Protein: Leucine carboxyl methyltransferase
Amino acid sequence: MDSSKQENALPQDQELELKLPHLLSTKTVRELYTQIVNEWDFLRKSACQTAAGRALWKHVIDDPLAEVLAGETYLRNLHEKIKKDRHNNARETSGVILAVRTLWFDSKIEAALDSFGGAAQVVLLGAGMDTRAYRLSCLKECDVFEVDFPEVLQVKAALLQVALESTENLRLMAKSLTRVATDIRENDWLEKLQLSGFVPEKNTIWVLEGIIYYLSHSQAMQVLKVVAEKCTLTHTVLLADFMNKASTTLSNSTFHFYSDWPDQLLPSLGFSHVKLSQIGDADAHFGLMHDPLNLFNKLRNLPRSVETHPDDGTPCCRLYLVQASGSPDQNNFLENHANVI
Ligand SMILES: C[S@@+](CC[C@H](N)C(=O)[O-])C[C@H]1O[C@@H](n2cnc3c(N)ncnc32)[C@H](O)[C@@H]1O
Structure:
């Protein structure tokens, strides 16, 4: 195969025809989807769109529950876009960002757990239809907390019950899974997390995937500060994707919070190590980004301070994948170091 087109390497059957799982036509599942389509706002519905991405990129992401969690509408929408991209021979196939992002978070969660010796708390803020607790064996010694709006968590639990009852090989991989219904724009979300069993002193990985830019600037900063404060108590790892300003200012954008320099922002909040990746970088590639002329490779070859593409004047919309960490030892070290200076 021409490696420059590898990101388009969807299996033939997906390209032509969308095969929906039987479960989607059962009465219970159809009723749950009526609720989603009629009652949820775009914020909650984004959970299903993300799941559709993982379902349709199943040749690189092993998430057997994603189809049922995505639902027919979102699977069909994305499948149509993928078909159009194939037809137009597009350099970037719809959903490739979601695929790379998912694989990046998976790999960084595993690496962080290795650094902790395997056991930790993993908190997914805006967990949506994420199924890591069921699909990542590296979570076997972990207490996982999924935080999202009550309606999202209720419908997800109901859909998972149906899916797990009808499939033999699927089971919880994590040591425990606790769902915490709350709005992280409110001041009491951490308290609710703690009341649900989260222990601030235990090593923790915070996963903020596809969530932070839905918040306002002050709400996002508040959430990031709450997480950063935990660096003074325990080993803390934050994994998050950030949009730059250009990405949030496109017309019809539903995004608010942005950071052009999260690698400067996070240390100012208390994290000691920060690594930023862009889609297409060595650790955010996964064999899906070979074409040097695809949008992502062109972008990451431009300095980050460049705001518009030199070729056509369009805004440089970037998604940064960021891992940050901190611990009390590091804080002591930095304080001592500062005193010496
Ligand atoms: C794009 S989805 C991403 C879901 C998940 N992280 C993933 O990658 O599959 C965003 C999720 O954040 C949730 N969300 C957005 N704002 C939230 C808030 N203020 N409090 C709790 N959850 C929120 C939405 O309900 C939705 O499930």
The mean pLDDT is 91. Residues 3-87 form one domain. The radius of gyration is 20 Å.
